[in-house]
């Protein structure tokens, strides 16, 4: 693919939701949601990353507000959803059914575009493979299939640690070397323990490691945001919980399920230098789902707001807008 560095598309100018609320989805969870854009426009649901990352006011700006009816929400335990950072009844399949509840009860539409990056791509695939009749298109970024090699890439030595040995040492340093088990298990003990100070320290270290891997160029703003106590605890507890459980997905499940996506138009925007979710997963998905358009961004990392990644995403949503 040709590398485009001039006239790259950027976020739409800031706009506010026209309606917000909380939806009770069961097991005590209340999900914060917001509708923005054009109430009569083309429906789209935005699925944020992590899991645990929560939504931000910039996420809606990837869609033309004159053309899209945009539903953004915070997944169980994230952002403004309550109870904060809760791991109770918090699995991939709870979230898949939450998306259906939001479609029926909040967006009140029959079908919608499904848009997600990173963990949001995992959840988009799980949702669209469960309810293929509900997805008009899929726009995905930074593909994460929850296969073992992707989890190991992030949390075992020899993957992202080979690119960020400095960050890896810091991540590993809060766990005594002689402690048995892997780092995901060791962090889990601390992130779910009774000691609040230890939980926060582990949460900030977990989130800092992730923050280092998600931008191509060092970003102090990303590290500061992801390690701030109110954000770090949800990211670390929820992400660690999902990683420890393999996302409640069988190995290869989302690749095998790609046959259910036949006939649904799709675009993948994937950074070549994505150190969090390297292109291997996107490539495997493209082979399993030949109709999808795979755009590998030569100077792209992982995060949606990097210039080449954002350009690809906005071009995709614009193309599907009419
Ligand atoms: N997790 C990758 C992911 O979904 C494997 C992700 N990485 N960072 C984020 O999400 C946030 C920046 C949204 C926290």
Task: Tell me what the structure shows.
This protein has 322 residues and is of the alpha/beta class. It has two domains: 19-145 and 248-321, Alpha/Beta hydrolase fold, catalytic domain (Rossmann fold, 3-Layer(aba) Sandwich), CATH 3.40.50.1820; 149-247, no CATH class. Helices cover 39% and strands 16% of the residues. It has helices at 92-107, 119-130, 148-155, 160-163, 165-173, 183-191, 196-213, 220-227, 229-244, 253-256, 280-288, 307-320; strands at residues 19-26, 29-37, 42-47, 68-73, 112-117, 135-141, 266-271, 293-297. It has an eight-stranded mixed sheet, with helices on both faces. Helix 1 (92-107) crosses helix 2. It is globular. The mean pLDDT is 97. The site of ligand STX has 12 residues, from loops. Residues 48-50, 53, 118-119, 144, 210, 214, 226, 235, 276 line the site of ligand STX.
Q: Which molecules are bound besides the chains?
A: ligand STX
Count every helix, treating DSSP H or I runs of 4 or more residues as helices: 12
Instruction: Kindly report the spatial arrangement of strands forming the biggest sheet.
Output: 1-2-4-3-5-6-7-8
N-to-C CA distance? 25 Å
Task: Let me know the average pLDDT.
Answer: 97
CATH class of the largest domain: Alpha Beta
Instruction: Bin the helical content.
Output: 25-40%
Q: Work out the radius of gyration.
A: 19 Å
Number of domains: 2
CATH hierarchy: architecture of the largest domain: 3-Layer(aba) Sandwich
Unreliably modeled segments: none
CATH topology of the largest domain: Rossmann fold
Instruction: Give the helices and strands as they follow along the chain.
Output: EEEEHEHEHHHHHHHHEHEH
Number of strands: 8
Name the structural class: alpha/beta
| Tertiary shape | globular
Largest sheet: 8 strands, mixed
At the fourth level of CATH, the homologous superfamily of the largest domain is Alpha/Beta hydrolase fold, catalytic domain
